[in-house]
Amino acid sequence: MNETEAPGRPAGTGTRGTGTRGTRGTTGSAGTGPRASAGTGRAAASTSLGRIGALARAELTLLGRSKGTLVAALFVPLVLPLSVRSAATKMDLAEAGLSVGTVVLPAAVGFSLLFAVYSALVGVFVVRREELVLKRLRTGELRDAEIIAGSALPASLTGLAQCLLLTAACSLLLDLPAPPAPHLAVAGLLLGLVLCAALAAVTASHTRTGESAQVTPMPLMIVSMMGSGMFVPLELLPDRLASVCELLPLTPVLTLVRAGWTGALPAGETLAALATAVAWTALAVFAVRRWFRWEPRR
């Protein structure tokens, strides 16, 4: 675990207590005007990004050594869309204004978010906690949000790259035209990445061991695959059931992604999907701040 420990130790113990912050405050050499404030803000942002990047590089190294996680994250999402395509060819999609491509592509994005981001990060957070890595990282200059962001960044980038690859493949193989509303697809994908990372941290808070981390993500994954429109589009479900499924965490994400290619989502439904996704993200972030565990469960 040396690779993961390294990002949390660069500052040592001297910079906070006796470093340059105290000297600037007493001598006044740094100035107090807008220019000095802007420079301080840029330096703080740069330092924060540097710490997150260093932790992300270490986490990427460790992630590459976990063959089981790599198989589940990289290959399973590439296979599952094939089963969706087989089922979609037997559905009456034309009546709902859909095609095989506009069903398979959002499903492929959903599988990537669930396997490459959500499920993988639950294991990452739990294993790092049980090995006391998270506890040691908190003793350095890394803030709590930076630790979570740095740990989640490699899996999130993997999921993003996989989504882009699957989008290109679906466009070529299923004859999908260029999306008429690409901004909706981009918004849905970005919200999905942040939401799945936050939900992974919440799930990890209630997971005791690395072995159980293979099981605890399953309820949300199954509910999302069945009810968020991955296997069966919500347009084909009864209205009452579809209204309930619209409130699931991943449903607004897939709705926005699909709307990017159909261009048929009214403004009211677009705002509703955005509001639902943002609400779930805010709720997940609150839960992480309130219940995330940094030390092993006893």
Automatic annotation (TrEMBL):
Family assignment from sequence similarity: Belongs to the ABC-2 integral membrane protein family.
Domain ABC transmembrane type-2 stretches: 68-291
Organism domain of life: Bacteria
Location(s), subcellular: Cell membrane; Membrane
PROSITE patterns assigned to the protein according to its UniProt record, in alphabetical order: ABC_TM2
The entry's keywords: Cell membrane, Membrane, Transmembrane, Transmembrane helix, Transport
Pfam entry (one): ABC2_membrane
Cited PANTHER family: DOXORUBICIN RESISTANCE ABC TRANSPORTER PERMEASE PROTEIN DRRC-RELATED, TRANSPORT PERMEASE PROTEIN
UniProt-recorded name of the protein: Transport permease protein
